[in-house]
Amino acid sequence: MIYRILIVLALLLFPTEALSSFSVQPTIGTLGTGAELGWRYGDTWGLRIGAAVYPFENSIKLKGIKYKADNSSYNVSLLADVYPFENGLRFTAGAYYFKMKAKITTSIDAVNPLYEELINQSKGTALWQRVAPYAGLGWQSDAKESGLGWHFSLGALYMGKAHVSFQLPDVYIPQRYVSRIEKKKESIRDKVHDYTWYPVLTAGFTWRF
Fold first, then answer.
1. Given CB 3.0 to 4.6 Å as the disulfide criterion, which of 16, 88, 126, 129 pairs with 162?
2. Residue 183: Cβ-neighbour burial (10 angstroms; 0-12, 13-18, 19+)
3. What is the pLDDT of residues 110-164, one digit of tens each?
4. What's the CA gap between 189 and 187, in Å, rounded?
5. Residue 15 falls within a domain, yes or no?
6. How many domains does the structure of the chain reveal?
7. 22 contacts 28 by C-beta, under 8 angstroms
8. Is 144 inside a domain boundary?
């Protein structure tokens, strides 16, 4: 009996033609490459689930610090779309579960060139791994028709603060340089922690059934 009630409610809330609106969307953008599965409910709103990975290392520079995104980074998303007009424009809200790991490179000047070279072999990483809210807007061609189209989205992801760690080379370094390294590490942590928003730009093809 309960299943019949659920079926009736589904038919009342979502018209049959809307339930048949299904799309596959390959994507590429600032969060990597991946794909989304979309469902269009009626003319005004829809739902998308997606996943993406970094297939290659990508160097970026933020607030004077150079990062290199690790290819172990990935994300999965759940997004709700609202289509207020009939031109394919959509407003989106949702959440990402993501892991973004970036290598950090910096430099410290020392009087002794040997120590300077050793110090600059230190390794640093910044790791973001959590559920993060997302908001944005986009445009999708042929939003209500079957066939091949394309999509474009622009938004922002609230990443929060990263976990920052450093590993010094396994050699003796004089204490006066160690204190300078610690100050530099704190400065880098502060700059990384200031970076809590990540721009999200995606584009790709849409195949709607």
1. 126
2. exposed
3. 566 666 666 666 667 888 889 999 999 999 876 556 678 889 999 999 988 888 8
4. 5
5. no
6. 1
7. no
8. yes
pTM over 0.85: no
Kind of pairing between the strands at 32-41 and 58-62: unpaired
Residue 9: φ, ψ to 5°? -65, -40
**How many CB atoms neighbour CB 123 within 10 A?**
12
Helix (H, G, I), strand (E, B) or coil at 150: strand
Give dist(CA 186, CA 65) in Å, integer: 13
- CA pair distance 176, 190, nearest whole angstrom: 22
Can you read off the two tokens belonging to residue 181?
A: 């390294």
> How far are the Cα atoms of 7, 122, 133, 202 from residue 176, in angstroms, in the given order?
73, 16, 43, 47
- CATH number of residue 57's parent domain: 2.40.160.170
Q: Is residue 12 part of a domain?
A: no
133 in Cβ contact with 158 (< 8 Å): yes
- In terms of phi and psi (left: phi > 0; alpha: psi -120 to 50; beta: otherwise), the region of 54 is beta
Cβ atoms of 25 and 38 closer than 8 Å: yes
Residue 33 within a domain: yes
Which two structure tokens, joined as six digits, stand for 139? 């445009």
Q: CA geometry: angle at 32 spanning 26 and 34, to 5°?
A: 25
Q: Can you point out the beta strands (E) in 118-162? A: 123-140, 147-158
